[in-house]
Specification:
alpha+beta; 2 domains; 3-stranded antiparallel sheet; single chain; globular; 28% strand; 31% helix; Aminopeptidase; 7 helices
Length: 272
């Protein structure tokens, strides 16, 4: 899918490793770039075209991973991975590589030969906002209170309270404009949250979560519609998001809303 010109048909065939046979690499590169801006790591270092992201205070895999960005950059793979591993160890993080269509095939072959595990297979989906009819106006406005949003996200996601300072810091570090959406019920409290990052003509849907008590009741769809409506009113032409492939209810929600696959990625770690 070309994110800057006319849409191209998304991949429909799938390789044995789960990746689409054909992907549009310029679209992958652009979505990777906006994804990094939408979820900034505390520490960013480059080794050639490998982007090494580390965040001591938060366990997010996206914030603690090696991200190869050029399929042709495969020199000294073993040495560079060992060097990256030392950086991760300094922060007590396991060495993790985020494998995308930009990962050199030689690096993938090396990890395969060394018995690296794979986990958290994920999809990157996109939606042309011009194709959706949201009606006039906006029925839910984003809130301004980052602390309140973070408290709700931690509660709904069942995350450790200790992650609040780091999550607050991450959100405050996002440079593009953000919309913090929070749905609440008078009896049970927070029911759903989403973070929308508006970056030029793109809008990323982040931190999307619905409380278990209200799932399958239309809350997720209402939250998604509110998030997308705000993004379009801000001028975004396309929306994108990342979701684990194993999260079938979420994938079904997004596909039903019209999102289509652009590419896939997964995480790799050395065998213990």
């Amino acid at each position: 899918m070309d994110m800057t010109s006319n849409d191209r048909k998304p991949p429909t065939e799938t390789a044995t490793d789960g990746y689409p046979v054909t992907v549009d690499l310029p679209s992958v590169r652009r979505l990777e770039a906006v994804g990094f801006r939408a979820w900034p790591a505390a520490s960013v270092q480059y080794d050639g075209s490998w982007l090494i992201r580390l965040t001591a205070g938060h366990p997010s895999k996206r914030l603690n991973s090696v991200n190869p960005l050029d399929p042709s950059d495969y020199r000294d793979i073993a040495v560079r991975l060992e060097k990256a591993g030392r950086r991760f160890a300094e922060l007590d993080r396991p060495l993790t590589v985020r494998q995308t269509p930009l990962t050199p095939p030689q690096m993938i072959a090396y990890m395969d030969e060394q018995g690296w595990t794979s986990f958290a297979h994920s999809l990157v989906l996109a939606l042309d906002l011009a194709e959706r009819d949201f009606g006039e106006g906006i029925d839910h406005l984003p809130i301004k209170d980052v602390g309140r949003f973070v408290d709700a996200r931690i509660l709904i996601g069942g995350e450790a309270a200790e992650t609040k300072p780091a999550l607050s810091e991450i959100i405050n570090a996002i440079k593009p404009e953000c919309g913090l959406f929070l749905f609440e019920d008078r009896k049970i409290g927070p029911t759903a949250v989403s973070l929308v990052v508006h970056d030029n003509d793109l809008a990323g849907i982040m931190q999307f979560a619905v409380a278990e008590a209200v799932r399958r009741q239309g809350v997720g769809r209402a939250l998604l519609d509110a998030s997308l409506r705000w993004a379009r009113l801000k001028g975004a032409k396309k929306a994108w998001l990342q979701v684990e492939a194993a999260n079938e209810p979420a994938v079904a929600l997004y596909r039903d809303a019209g999102f289509t696959e652009v590419y896939r990625y997964l995480y790799r770690a050395p065998k213990v």
